[in-house]
Amino acid sequence: MGEKITISLIKADVGGFPGHSAVRTELKEKAIERLEKAKREGLLISYHVLTAGDDLQLLMSHRKGVDSTDIHGLAWDTFEAATEVAKELKLHGAGQDLLVDAFSGNIRGMGPGIAEMEFTERGSEPLVAFMMDKTEPGAFNLPIYKMFADPFTTAGLVIDPTMHDGFIFEVWDIKDRKEVLFRCPEELYDLLALIGAKSRYVIKRVYPRDTSPLPKDEPVAVISTEKLYFTAGKYVGKDDPVALVRAQSGLPALGEVLEPFSLPFLVSGWMRGSHNGPIIPVPFRYSHCTRFDGPPRVVAAGFQISHGRLVGPADLFDDPAFDLARSKALEIADYVRAHGPFEPHRLPMEDMEYTTLPDILKKLESRFKNV
Ligand code: F6R
Ligand code: MG
Ligand code: MG
What we know:
Elements: E1 4-12, H1 25-40, E2 46-52, E3 55-62, H2 69-88, E4 113-120, E5 126-133, H3 141-149, H4 156-159, E6 167-173, E7 178-184, H5 188-195, E8 201-208, E9 221-223, H6 228-231, E10 242-246, H7 254-258, E11 266-269, E12 275-278, E13 280-281, E14 297-306, E15 309-315, H8 323-337, H9 357-364
Parallel strand pairs: 13-14
Antiparallel strand pairs: 1-3, 1-4, 2-3, 5-10, 5-14, 6-7, 6-8, 8-9, 9-10, 11-12, 14-15
The chain binds fructose -6-phosphate (F6R) and magnesium ion (2 copies).
Fructose -6-phosphate (F6R) binds near residues 20 and 272.
């Protein structure tokens, strides 16, 4: 076993071009300039600036551990610098995810989303960074469940002796801010009872079991769980989630990690964060949201970690193997869109990001008669 490494994926929407569709190259260039400087100064071992829809994604490797003020501060400064560029270009929603005026030590709860984990680098350390746009953290529940608990997805759960005992899931109640651990497979049904309610219960981390050769206290997957309207008490920004997943040798193989995305499952978000629709797995070049501000999409960047360095990225959904998922997603998108303002295309009232309902009810107050 090698040295410990920390991977931090921190993202924010600091301005879209045009509208909420994508990130302008100038913002990416500004971020690269900042992270390159931090690398030269020795804070970062390596970094990649990626984009998912209108979100700017900073993927960094370093030895500072999780919740490092230096790393979080670097991300915050980088988003602030990119916001300046966005303001000058009058990009849409410039600085929208930076909810506070000044950085105060830890970026969590300040607007940006974060997935971060520290672990001992193995002889071969494959890693996938998943980035979704126009959806919420619970959108990762189904694919993470399938990767680490579904034997129809992950053959290794059945036939690899190093995985046969299953995994441990850490689930957060993002409304009441509580967490609970589930040992799977024996607690699968309890796990599913919660994570099926994906707007409230979200998988935060996955850990190996006692019998695994991997260190038990080191996560093998982590998901960002910032939900901005809970964070700030009211709706103020987007909560498009990201996840980091380690693969192979006692963990799901790369292909088992990608397999759940062969189904364009339904997620909530899309137009005005208020609609259900299919998630579409896309290559980097299609990482921009168009039709009805979507459909929601996911990109996957693959890496091998070498002495802390993120070697990559591989554009993992740039493969005809996902063409069928994409065309199915388009068909589903057409079908659900035909429902217009009706549920279940439009979200139930309590989950909508925008609503005029209280105003309409107020206006009608005097006209309502008892029945
Ligand atoms: C959804 C999203 C967009 C916006 C919509 C309206 O997550 O980002 O669908 O909600 O484009 O945006 P504003 O209110 O900025 O005009
Ligand atoms: Mg936006
Ligand atoms: Mg976004």
